[in-house]
Amino acid sequence: MKRHLPNAVTCLNxxxxxxxxxxxxxxRLDNGAWFVAAAAVADFADGLLARAxxxxxxxxxxxxxxxxxxxxxxxxxxxxxxxLATGEAATPPPPIxxxxxxxxxxxxxxxxxxxxxxxxxxxxxxxxxxxxxxxxLVVASLPLILSHDRFxxxxxxxxxxxxxxxxxxxxxxxxxxxxxxxxxxxxxxxGDNRRRFIFLLLAAGLLLGLQAAAVPLIVLLYVLLxxxxxxxx
Length: 233
Known about the structure:
This protein is mainly α. The protein has one domain: Up-down Bundle (Four Helix Bundle (Hemerythrin (Met), subunit A)), CATH 1.20.120. Helices cover 71% and strands 3% of the residues. It is built from nine helices and two strands; from the N terminus they run ααααβαααβαα. It has helices spanning 5-25, 29-53, 58-86, 105-119, 132-147, 154-157, 160-175, 190-210, 214-231; strands at residues 126-128, 179-181. A two-stranded antiparallel ribbon has the order 1-2. Helix 4 (105-119) runs parallel beside helix 7 (160-175). The longest helix is centred in the N-terminal third of the chain and has 29 residues, at 58-86. The radius of gyration is 18 Å and the shape is globular. Keywords: Lipid biosynthesis, Lipid metabolism, Membrane, Phospholipid biosynthesis, Phospholipid metabolism, Transferase, Transmembrane, Transmembrane helix. InterPro entries: CDP-alcohol_PTase-I, CDP-OH_P_trans, CDP-OH_PTrfase_TM_dom, CDP_ALCOHOL_P_TRANSF_CS. One of its GO terms (biological process) is phospholipid biosynthetic process.
């Protein structure tokens, strides 16, 4: 029975991704963002549970990637599509009317990222390229920033140039040859996990102070904290 528990949690990830999509295409992007957060928790929990129970399988690995493709591949593309469509006039002239479809570049590069991860033996203890959940959390934070706009970012978030630029940047980071540390703790010793502890403490502080607006900064912090390790190689 216990060998099926991680897969059950992975299926929860997939379910939350499907629910996010229904909310996004109904125009309730903030609700969709919360389902994305739930999917991210399930995605983290299934790996944690598999390691704790010492169970793993090829089916579990494939199921995880399939669930991730929905929750962290299709979903962010759908959010960017809706945001780009929101930022356009009611009847935009060609070819501007097709601009929202640019958002699905993230979905395409997420698929490439997941396929690369499954076949790259270098990514057993760390990541090469931005993980799809991190990319999706950045995108999912945008509707939450809009619905709780404490810092007057509404015009920035809905600016088509900003959204297209973010889409291209995230797509590039997904497949970049950029080594990034993983949040996997083999022990709780400071020396073994200094980078992880610093990241979690700073991330918690940013979330408390900035709430949803902190998420893009947290992902940027994650990349920057990985740079010293990359440069040392």
